[in-house]
Amino acid sequence: MKVDYSRYWDRVKFWKDIVENKDAFLGSSPPAVFVGSSFYPRVNIGVLSPPTHENDAGILDDPGAWYARRSSLSDILDYRSRMIFSRSHVENVAKPESKILEAMQELAVSSRSLDVEIKLSRRPSFAFEFDQRASPIGNPAPVEKIRVVDNATVLRAVDVAVSGTDLKTEDALRYLRGKVPIYSISKILSVGLLGVKGQRRVVPTRWSITAVDSNMGNLIVREIKQYPEVDKPLLYQNEYLFNDYQILLLPGKYQYELVEIDLTESMSSPKVGSDYEPYLGRKMYANETAGGFYAARVAALEGLSRMRRQAVVLIVRETKPQYTVPVGVWEVRETVGGAFDKPPRKFETAEEGFGAISQHALTRDLWKTKSRLYRSVREQMQIVKFF
Question: Are 32 and 167 members of one domain?
Answer without folding.
Answer: yes
